[in-house]
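Entry 14: structure prediction run for Homogentisate 1,2-dioxygenase. Input pasted below.
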Amino acid sequence: MSVADSLTYMTGFGNEFETEALSGALPKGQFNPQRVNYDLYTEQFNSTAFTAPRSSNRRTWFYRIRPSAVQGEYQAIDNGLIRTAPITEAVTPPSMLRWDPIDIPTQKTDFIDGLITMAANGNANGQSGMAIHHYALNANMDNRYFCNADGEMLFVPQQGELLLFTECGKLTIKAGEIAVVPRGMKFQISLFSDTARGYLCENYGDPLHLPERGPVGANGYSNDRDFQYPVAAFEDIEGDFTLVTKFNGNLFQCPIGHSPLDVVAWTGNSAPYKYDLSRFNVINTVSYDHPDPSIFTVLTSQTATPGVANLDFVIFPPRWMVAENTFRPPWYHRNLMSEYMGLIEGVYDAKEHGFVPGGASLHNCMSPHGPEADVFEKASTVDLQPQRYENTLAFMFESRFVISPTAYALHGKERQHNYIECWQKIQKKFNPKTP
Ligand SMILES: O=C(O)Cc1cc(O)ccc1O
Ligand SMILES: [Fe+2]
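Run finished. Output tokens:
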């Protein structure tokens, strides 16, 4: 049995949890008593304004060995390839863009060193939009911890297995699972495999929540009970540690003489969580036509405009395809929303070549896209039978704000400069004489 299997979780999206690593550490019936058992310090942590409506309010009470204020002076450090919106270093083209996966590093690289920002939108300072990073690492975060004041972090692993030790406790993630760490929560990442690679969406806006179900009813899509939260776990260690903090678009670090993962008990609903994407209850047509991909939304961060997302996290999982008299892959389209896609495993139905696991594509606001030429030929002539799509798991970060690639994304070696050739073979077939 691996360490990953031995971890226990609490379940239920956004529940008000109570968890203690030492019996009696959690105050009963109040949040901040004069003295806390075990002489712990009380600290409130929130991801929404105090005054946010109850339905969206997120906050947690920590009972910890030392309050977070016990840390050294910050100094700016190099941002490496990490960027923050607004991206001003490059002009955003309307072009359709695609990338190969980033390399697994050969030099010692931990999670922070292994982050490359590919694109961002909105404005972190104004709490709107997001950034999309790719990560690849081969080393644990030894003696250092990370904290991101700019946004909530959605991890989409593509290979390898990670242990996220957070202030709220431990969770593991591997390909096919996702995890979300609240804005500003401190954590450390270690590897359960030799290397790991994946995607990371940094959400500057409203915290992610489960989308509405509308007429589908009380069940289906992502079900609340499948979201897993860590139980309290702490380390009581002293030493020469570093806390790296991303704040307002820049990286800083400060010395800290103890582990900041010293929360012995906590209660609240602002906490990291994980979700196994195979639990997604896929709902799709059983008659005809290809519905909009919003049916595959796992999590959403809304803007103040009803129904218009700051960020939708959408997946294209294994599923049955039964639509009759239908062109089954995505139709050709031009959308208001901007779409950044990645592939966790297998092949995506609209693009059988060039869109590979670990790679990515970007189709911005109104940029035309859809199936490559060969896929069109096949899908428009195939004898339609019920068919199970196996060995496939693509996803999309979709946003109302135009997604600006970074200079690295535009000029780095991963960019596929020939991407638009996948549509060039599409022939004119129009014949005014035969309907
Ligand atoms: O562009 C894409 O491949 C994503 C997508 C999938 C789909 O089924 C319908 C619309 C859409 O943007
Ligand atoms: Fe699309």
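Notes: The CA atoms of residues 343 and 357 lie 5 Å apart. Will compare against the previous run tomorrow.
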